[in-house]
Structure formats: C-alpha cells, structure tokens
Amino acid sequence: MQFAGLGAAVMGMWTCQGVIASSLLTRERWAGTLELVVAAPTSMGRVLVPTTLALSTIGLYTVIATILWERWVFGLELRIESWPLFVTSVLAAALTLAQFGFFLAVTAVRYRSSWSLGASLEYPGWLLCGFVIPVATLPDWLHPLSWSIPTTWAMEAVRESADGGSPWRDLLLCLLIGSAYAVLASFLGRQLVDSARRHATLALT
Amino acid sequence: MTTLRILVVGGLMSYRAMFNWLSPWILVPSLIVSPICQILLFAYIGRSAGVGNDEFYVMGNALNYAAIPCLFAMSATIEGEREGRTLSVVLTTPAARIPLFLGRALPVIVNGWAVAMVGVLFGLLVLDVHIPGGSWPALLLVIAVASASCTGLGLAMGAVALRVREGAVLGNVLFCLLLVFSGVSVAVDDLPGWMATVSPWLPLTHAIEAARRVADGAAISDVGGLVVREVGVGALYAALGLLLLSWLEQQSRRHATLERV
Fold it and tell me: Is this structure's pTM higher than 0.95?
C-alpha cells in the first residue's frame, strides 16, 4: 500500500502539468493574446516557465490533498523516514515538471487541438513514470522512454526518501533531464515560433 | 417519412457538424491512444498486484472508454447548438423533439461501440485475452447495448449542459464516476456496500459483467437478464434527458436564456 500511496500522491502533479501545459499556447491563441506573447521583447521561457511553475503549485496541492485523504478516507498512513528529503524530492518533481511542461507547451505551438494531446498524455505518464506500477514490470523496450521523463526519477527519489534511502542520485538525474528539456524547449521555442511567424500560422484557430 | 429523415439524416448531420473530435488530430489521441493506455495501465496494475487477469481489465476499461464519445459527443451535439447560436433556429422548427434529439444519438452509439472495439481488439492482439469465436456475435451486441446505454446518460448530460456552462468538466466527472462505480477495474462485489448499491443504477455496470461472462464463453441467453437491465438503465437516462430537454427549453423561453453562453 505504501508503494501505491506514494505514487497516488505524486501522480496528480503529472496530470496538472501535462494536460494543461500542452494547451498553454492554444489557450493564448483562443484568448487572442498569443501574438502579444510572441511580440513581447523577452524569451518564450520567461513567459511560459512562470506559468508552468504555477501549474506545478497546483500539483503540490494535489500531493498534500492526496496524502491527507489517503490517511482520513482509506486509513493509509504513509511512512516517511526523512521528511526533509521527501519534501526536497517532491519540490524537485514540481520544478522538473515545470521544465517538462515548458517543453510540451512550445512543441505543441502549431498543434491547433493540443488540448487533446495533453489529455491523452495522462495515462501514458501514469504508466511510464512508475507511479503505481514499478517501471521494471513494463516491457524492456519501454524502459528508455520511462527513463527519459524526469518525473520517473523524481518518483524514485520520493520513494527512496520515504524508505530512508539516499535519493541524491535520482534527484541529480531528475534535475539533469528536466534541465535538458528546458534547454531543448528554449531552442525549439525560437525555431517553432519563428516558423509559425514565417508561415503566418501563429493565429491558427 | 419526415420523422425518419430527421432521425437519421438530421442526426448524422448534427453529429458531423457539432462533434469536432472527428478530426484525426483529436480522434487519434483521444479515442485510440487514450483507451489503449488506460487498458495498459490497469492491466499492469492488476499484474503487479496479482489481482484479476488481463481479460478482466480489457473488458472493463474498453467498455468504460465507450463512455467518452457517448458523453462528450452527445453533449456536443446539443450544447454546440447554443455555442453556435443555432439553438433557437433548431427549437423553432416544427420538428418533433424526440426524433430531433434521439437522431443525434444514433451516430454517437456507433462511435462509442467503435471506441470500445478498439480496446477489445488491442487486448486481443497485445495482451493475454482470448475470446472464443462463437462468443463474438454476443460480445458485439453487448458492447452495442453498453454504448446505447451510455448515450442515454450522454443525452441527460447534454440537457444539463444547456444550463451548465462547463459541460466538459461535467463529462469528466461522470466518466470518473463510471470508472469507479461500474465495476470497470474493481469488481462490484469488492466495492463498499454503498457504492455497490449505486452501481446497478449506472450505465455500463451490467454490460461490463455481461461482456466478461460472454468473453469467458457464456451464451447470450445466459446474460440476457444483464443485457435487459442495461437497456433499462439506458432507457431511464434517455427518458430523463428528453424530459430535461423539454423542461429546460420551456424555462429558457420563459426567461429568455436560450442562447446565453
């Protein structure tokens, strides 16, 4: 139960980020503000990362809420050996999910129905990140895909912290992969937005 | 003849015009990728926990996902008229309301059936699911009944969506309720008593049980009672939906809120 309880606590963070971040720019487009965002004399990252960080704070709320209802409704009291390391791991999950959300947001800039992409990412994320099933039980060919998502490592760090182990290796990998997505998103953001401006497809409706 | 035309042709036209999920950019992620991933997730949870078998999760989750088009498409074909500012045009026609709205349900039933079949076929090809050849006609019928029953709930939801602004949120909540209460991934017998009491009054519960039995080799006559109960539940929600539509139409005319968005 400890395994499922910890996974359930963190999996809401994935939903909050993945589903909404994919359609961030589409929502700007619907609101007629995408051109203003693109025209602002600043990088896309400075505009989008604060938004995805804000989404992560909703994810943090889901962690707290889930831990509480697991305790009050199901009588499941999670054993956390090191609260400081546990909180650090959860915060790392929030930060790297914001970076991953930035990546999702910019890559979907020309996908006019990106909300459907975001909605369809919910179950794959739950499956691949090891929230409620161990990654090792998945087919071997799926393992690299799991490892390429920072949340997989954040989840490992959360479990290690709760079990009294050392989460530092998992946290390092989580932060490295998250940062790689942020760098990639900064690069792709420029390319994709420039392309959309060149082809006059920024205001797709 | 006019009634039949409104039912079939009008229903199909409304469905195609209002349900924008038919674009491959939405259809593939929403109605193919998502059901497959939901099946995989619960099948692997079952394997990890040593509970149930692949067939249990494939049948439950494949039929559960039929609810997505049934709820959202049905709602879209009604709510979309309001957003498109065409609801007043539709309601001022002399067309009878029952074929007008039930006609929109027919393509939705086919859509729900097809989505459930994607899940069943995926389970058959990729997971450990084996369905006897002789069980297929009964299984196809049970899935069609499940889809029709869910569409009844979708009709009721579509009626409510005339008044509630966030129809999509309502649809997601109903989908989650069906996921938990209808015996999709946890058998109804294993649910807490109060939840098991609610289950028989929801679409899918009887159809999922029937589909599991048929997949295990039961004949259609063995699950006849379950199928009839599923039809009854669907008819109940459809009747509720038509009543709600009629009442909300009257209220909207009286308070001049027909196309308030």
Answer: no
